[in-house]
Fold this sequence. Notes:
Layout (H helix, E strand, L loop, with lengths): L10 H6 L12 H15 L9 H10 L13 H13 L7 H10 L14 H13 L3 H12 L7 H6 L11 E5 L4 H16 L3 E5 L21 H13 L10 E6 L5 H6 L15 E5 L2 H8 L9 H8 L8 H4 L3
Parallel strand pairs: 1-2, 2-3, 3-4
Helix pairs in contact: 2-5, 4-6, 4-7, 6-7, 9-10
GO molecular function: ATP binding; ribonucleoside-diphosphate reductase activity, thioredoxin disulfide as acceptor
Family: Belongs to the ribonucleoside diphosphate reductase large chain family.
Pfam families: Ribonuc_red_lgC (PF02867), Ribonuc_red_lgN (PF00317), RNR_N (PF08343)
Amino acid sequence: MSLKTLKDVTYFKLNNEINRPVNGQIPLHKDKEALEAFFKENVLPNTMTFPTVTDKINYLIEEDYLEEPFIRNYSPAFIESLYDFLAQQNFHFKSFMAAYKFYGQYALKTNDGTQYLETYEDRVAFNALYFADGNEELAMTLAEEMIHQRYQPATPSFLNAGRKRRGELVSCFLIQLTDDMNAIGRGINSALQLSRIGGGVGITLSNLREAGAPIKGYEGAASGVMPVMKLFEDSFSYSNQLGQRQGAGVVYLNVFHPDIIAFLSAKKENADEKIRVKTLSLGVIVPDKFYELTRKNQDMYLFSPYSVEKEYGVPFSYVDITKEYDN
């Protein structure tokens, strides 16, 4: 049996039964049954075991699953004591979905994806040892906080800490595009690379000229921000961090940008497929001036990034709208 040949599992069916009330009550005990079935049918038969913790760590290092330097900052005796401490805490997943999520997206697996190489305690231990950087007291403190779920590292940190072949440990990056084709191309390439190494990526689109703006004197030539959003959405879908989790991206637009209505409409179910975004998150940059106008119930003017840059000599996002609005 392996993770790729699982058949006749019952945990999905048990988990689905939670959505079927019995006598008006949600059968929460089905979640516990699904959790127990998941470990019995999936985790325990497909987890590689070792005689000792030291044997396990040596194997992971020799097979290029684990970095060696951070492990060598500690004595084998201390690592054994850390593992003993974690075992004594008697950690149990509180729900089927929590266990399914961990083993599906966080636990280290063999190169062929057929067996698990880590338990939750292993991942906690490697995080504690890695981030403590040789400080035994800190390593023990981090392990205690994590195993009791009072502290949780960011997703890429928890996923990648200690791994030999991994993405980055940081969560988020921000890309600011300028209003030219080369900048858009570089932005897409940067988003692909940053997503590949484990980061969520935010992109500011406020500097891009709106739909219908002129290009090289030709009126109505610009396509606006919507096609660029679609390019980024496809990029994040493609760059999925070694298959561990989908790339995550968000695009931001200033509320005073002429494309703001189309931007906000891109999530509608009935939006045209050419502009509809499904997985890309949206964010709006809202200067103080917007709230001032709202409180006074006044009309709001939108500003072309092309015209603003032509007038001020700097990209739209560099201009303080609150200060310059009435000029």
